[in-house]
Amino acid sequence: MQKILPVIMCGGAGTRMWPESREATPKQFIQLFGERSTFQDTMAMLDASPLFETPLVITNADYAKIVAGQVTEIGASAEIILEPMRRDSGPAVAVAAEIGFRRSPDTILAVLASDHSVLDRAGMVAICAEAAAVASQGFIVTLGIKPTFAATGYGYIRPGERIGHKGQVSRVGAFVEKPDAEKARAYIADGYFWNSGNFIFRADTMRGEIARFETVMAEKVAGAVDAGKIESGCLVLDAASFGEATKKSIDFAVMERTDKAAVIPADIGWSDVGTWSAVRDLIERDESGNAVRGDGVIIGATNAYIRSQGILTAVVGVDNVIVVATSDAVLVLDARQADRVKEVVDRLKADNRPEIISHR
Amino acid sequence: MQKILPVIMCGGAGTRMWPESREATPKQFIQLFGERSTFQDTMAMLDASPLFETPLVITNADYAKIVAGQVTEIGASAEIILEPMRRDSGPAVAVAAEIGFRRSPDTILAVLASDHSVLDRAGMVAICAEAAAVASQGFIVTLGIKPTFAATGYGYIRPGERIGHKGQVSRVGAFVEKPDAEKARAYIADGYFWNSGNFIFRADTMRGEIARFETVMAEKVAGAVDAGKIESGCLVLDAASFGEATKKSIDFAVMERTDKAAVIPADIGWSDVGTWSAVRDLIERDESGNAVRGDGVIIGATNAYIRSQGILTAVVGVDNVIVVATSDAVLVLDARQADRVKEVVDRLKADNRPEIISHR
């Protein structure tokens, strides 16, 4: 069976996970669960399966060291591609497609997020294998997650007509925006999936679609790869060309326009771990719904979650609170308003506070 | 007019004000409000009025340095009396009465707490002067605070028959225990006062009542003063004698038994500042009821209060929360359950945690 070339997208900022996530060490590199980062979890999953080739890791040049360090730490290997500036996900995927295409036009690539949580790693690998078979027929196959609650924080996918006679793969009927709660319930009733943003395709398929919809992006990305330089073992994309690649998400650039999009159901315990509440909901908690990571005490509260790094943290009587304590910043968050951490970060950014850049 | 000899009781532990209050620097010595401790506020009030002599400060031997330092810091002076061990308030008041008596039997003493907040300091001084006049007739005059809400955290005083024809001084009808909310409302309707624990008396009156009700306490305290030694300008009570003085509060030892107790109404903006909620309720807050002392940000919350020492603290969406952040410990407290901080301290004590002893 043809191996899959994984492409790990590693350039995110993760502002909703402040104060652990900082500009210098964003969400994908912090230990949200256990002893490894979600980036390392993803790398380890790929490393453990013969289905995958050595992954391409696409990240911002600022994160070169941390990526290399985290890869080495778990004994894996990666080809690291550095973006000299942020151009959103479209150019990143275009780079991967271009590199895959130059190896061979029928290379199968799997674009995977580095900051998601997947409880069923074996299931994830199996889905990738299935999706690769569909992708080899010229589809861009996105992983559609079976919803487990009426999430308003995810985009949804309406499945269209079935592809083939076995399995449950469909064409994508439509990508739909994040809904309100009522719409979310209707979507679930109608069999929609969550859009996980992980997708699998043949290099020539994606490269062709990008060339078709985003000519400038395709040309500039090809130029950035051509003029790229190897530095300390990483491919550094050429800044002059890459900086001119259209700044656009792959969703807007291709996925919402192409007629080659397909969706494969993936019941793999997936979460994009977008907020501290999502983290709390994924970990083991006691009979009161409480959990402590690090040095904490909870008294008279339910569904409270303490994450503390070296500072004793006590919660008294506050239900549904999430406390994230680091050496230089403390966040006290109502779990039902976990999205609003972004407002704190915006405020701190306006004040030029160092506590959003790096840890003291 | 005869001057008053103030006696500042300074031996408390203040566990409900953790993590700012620690065993080594309890509540009365921390800057609850503004730049001074409540002990310093009390000292400054006395220092500013010609009504008062140089105060006696009675404290635990462990606090000798901090008391001397805080007195010097505000340019006041004090006679410091050190207890070699904690014997509750009865022996402390007995020591003050004994020392006052040796100066002159008719010395007027005012026993004042060091950890209370009084908004109307001028009113407090005026009440002390009035109370002194009543005390000179042989009464032990306690300051009765006109209740401003149905407090369940204070003991109450039922006023008895009026004393004299002017003013509103009464004999104490009864001291009553901390009530539930329903009883508290009834007490207020019936004109009861809060028992502030500040009282004024002639030395011979109090000394006589202690001798009458607590013979052992009186004898051992006299012995502890006799055998006391001056060390670094402080009177250190003799440990052998003082350790045998009956361990009992002045309320149980005298106030609830004597027929000489009187109560003078004091409408002076008093609070015992027993909890972090009491602090929050005393400070200036914005139109959402929020307040920040130190480095904090509040988003999407009402009646939130942040106290932070050198660590950026953000609250998102949690109403009625009090966050106290220090360099080595963080408390996240529901303001309506502020009493329960004691449970945290008990837990930490059981675990021998250094965070209850002193600041790192």
Q: Top keywords for this entry?
A:
homodimer, 360 residues, alpha/beta, Spore Coat Polysaccharide Biosynthesis Protein SpsA, Chain A, five-stranded mixed barrel, 11 helices, 19 strands, globular
Question: Secondary-structure map with pairings?
Answer:
Two copies of one chain form a homodimer.
Chain A (H helix, E strand, L loop, with lengths): L3 E6 L28 H10 L8 E5 L3 H10 L5 E5 L5 H15 L4 E6 L3 E2 L2 H15 L4 E6 L10 E7 L7 E7 L4 H9 L3 E10 H11 L1 H12 L2 E3 L2 E3 L2 H4 L7 H6 L5 E6 L3 E2 L4 H7 L8 E3 L2 E4 L5 E4 L3 E5 L4 E5 L3 E6 L6 H10 L10
Parallel strand pairs in A: 1-2, 1-4, 2-3, 3-11, 6-12, 14-16, 15-17, 16-18
Antiparallel strand pairs in A: 4-9, 5-13, 6-9, 7-8, 7-9, 8-12, 10-11, 18-19
Helix pairs in contact in A: 3-6, 3-7, 6-7
